[in-house]
Design goal:
The structure is a single chain. With 547 residues, the chain is α/β, with parallel strands linked by helices. The protein has a domain of 74 residues: Urease, subunit C, domain 1 (Roll). 32% of the residues lie in helices and 21% in strands. The protein is built from 20 helices and 23 strands. Strands 8-15-16-17-18-19-20 form a seven-stranded parallel β-sheet. The longest helix has 17 residues.
């Protein structure tokens, strides 16, 4: 008897029942346009779910035949269904905390920012800090200055952090409180920026920002951290994101995710990359990558080799355009990066290092290569967080190591307003999805929230069009197809955390994490994608978001 498409699909629908001992489904979703990201059955119309996992995938007739009187059935109304999106590098905990505690400064004028800070100061007891977040100096006519902040809030210390997290903008009271003067030396890996007269202009970068933050009293409670995670969970679920990599968790952050899970408020799975500052504590406790469960799992040890792309502190091989001989900040020395990497590696951790510019990437590749020679390990999956500005030679070395580049997937569109600092030639080598894929690598999607929104439709648009908001194309040669972008946003995100056998595609045995979209990006033109909303988000067979 010849094998027809229908009989092949029917076989796929029925075979999983042996694994589940012919268990009946709890739920069947049918009449959908289901993109599975599973090579054996790329498209389907129905999926059967039992106990939070996928039981079978196929066509309506075959799967509805599996239903019993106890099975719930949901008609998807021919909506597009995708595996739940995975944000492979983000900061949801701190994003939620900042939203709870600080002033949103995502405004397009200096005057608007001054107004919201002035209002917050009016409600803040004298002497206490006024904190702002989400500021983006690429989206105001010019960067904030100390004078701007002095004029708005003269009697409170003010710190407004860039949404990228590597720079801050301070008023005079804040410098006084921090003990920083025009004569204060820049710390290694940081700058207190100065104007033409040598006076502090208000901007502090990387290790200088860290020094300031260390002097601000930490008044956040365990409850605050839990509430921050709960708030970001709602945001992530509304965008169809069912898994995320928390990119720099402190012990309090790990606790917050567990608390939110225990209270029923965690709506996405989290792979926690742990900040290197507490590495000795983790080792003493016997922790390492993989500890945890499908909801909260310990991931890599996180370090920093350089600064930010959106804030122009990444450590480049050549100077920034229009910025003299300035080529960014070397945030970590080779000695410290190697020693921390070695300790974490020998303790069983995956390694993940923030490296944006060519010089930072080259440094980390050298360290990873050295560790692989000295202490070989099967399938290490070294991570290069952001891995933004590359060369063919660097890509060859990444491939030889089997390392994973984690690019910013939405930056060409969202931060296109600062790409002129990098120039047209360099843009052909930035966020290099096409080059990575052609080399056989598996780059996932990453928002770096709060640096950019956790919005998968933005990711797809930016990766496939390479257009900034004005329509200018940066790095056309790095465009990828929508099919490739969807794989990056799902299955390759799972691969980056050793979880590709648990999630990232809709196939029997995997977790029932999926998203139902209001409109179909596979049939609409790219210019319509940014307006597409999520209708429903499912985590482990339960709806965690419904529009």
């Amino acid at each position: 008897m010849p094998i027809t498409r229908r009989s092949f699909v029917k076989t796929l629908a029925v075979l999983p029942l042996a694994r589940f001992e012919r268990a009946e489904p709890d739920l069947i979703l049918h009449n959908g346009l289901i993109t599975t990201l599973h090579g054996a059955l790329p498209e389907a119309s129905a999926v059967a779910i039992r106990e939070g996992r996928i039981l079978a995938v196929g066509d309506d007739a075959d799967l509805l035949a599996l239903a019993t009187a106890r099975t719930r059935r949901i008609d998807l109304g021919r909506k597009r269904v995708l595996p739940g999106f995975i944000d492979a590098h983000a900061h949801p905990e701190w994003g939620g905390l900042y939203a709870l505690k600080y002033v949103a400064c995502d405004k397009d004028s200096i005057g608007q920012i001054q107004a919201v800070l002035r209002a917050r100061a009016a409600a803040t007891p004298g002497g206490q800090w006024v904190r702002g977040y989400l500021y983006d100096d690429g989206k105001t006519p010019r960067p904030l200055t100390r004078a701007d902040l002095d004029a708005a809030v003269p009697n409170h210390p003010v710190l407004v952090e860039h949404r990228g997290g590597h720079t801050g903008f301070m008023n005079s009271r804040a410098f006084e409180r921090s003990g920083v003067t025009s004569g204060t030396a820049d710390p290694p890996g940081g700058t207190y920026e100065r104007d033409a007269r040598g006076e502090l202009d208000g901007r502090v970068a990387d290790k200088a920002l860290a020094a300031v933050l260390a002097k601000i009293p930490d008044e956040l409670t365990r409850e605050d951290h839990r509430r921050g995670v709960a708030l970001s969970s709602k945001l992530y679920a509304s965008h169809g994101i069912t898994s995320a990599c928390e990119a720099d968790a402190q012990p309090a952050g790990l606790q917050a995710y567990q608390d939110a899970r225990d209270s029923g408020e965690l709506r996405f799975r989290v792979y926690c990359m742990m900040d290197v500052g507490a590495l000795d504590r983790y080792i003493a406790a016997g922790l390492h990558t993989g500890f945890g469960d499908v909801m909260v799992r310990i991931g890599a040890i996180k370090q920093f080799a350089d600064g930010s792309i959106s804030e122009r502190t990444a450590w480049l091989a050549a100077p920034y355009e229009g910025m003299g001989d300035y080529s960014g900040l070397e945030v970590g020395t080779r000695e410290s990066l190697y020693e921390n990497s070695r300790k974490a590696w020998l303790a069983g951790f995956q390694l993940a290092t923030h490296a944006n510019g060519e010089r930072a990437i080259e440094r980390m590749l050298g360290i990873y290569e050295q560790l692989e020679r000295e202490f070989p390990r099967r399938d290490p999956r070294f991570r290069l967080e952001h891995c933004t500005v590359v060369t063919p030679e660097l890509i060859t070395r990444i491939k030889a190591l089997g390392a994973i580049p984690i690019p910013f997937s939405g930056y060409v569109n969202f931060h296109g307003d600062v790409l002129h600092f990098y120039g047209e030639e360099r843009a052909q080598r930035m966020f290099a999805y096409r080059s990575f894929l052609d080399a056989g690598l598996r780059p996932p999607c990453a928002s770096d929230y709060t640096a950019s929104p956790p919005d998968p439709m933005l990711w797809l648009y930016s990766m496939t069009t390479r257009k900034d908001p004005s329509g200018h194309v940066w790095g056309e040669s790095q465009r990828i197809t929508v099919a490739e972008a969807l794989r990056a946003a799902t299955l390759d995100g799972a691969y980056a955390s050793f979880e590709e056998h648990e999630k990232g595609s809709l196939e029997p045995g995997k977790l029932a994490d999926l998203v139902v979209l209001e409109a179909d990006p596979l049939t609409l033109p790219p210019e319509a994608w940014l307006a597409i909303k999520v209708q429903r988000t499912m985590l482990a067979g339960n709806w965690v978001y419904e529009a």
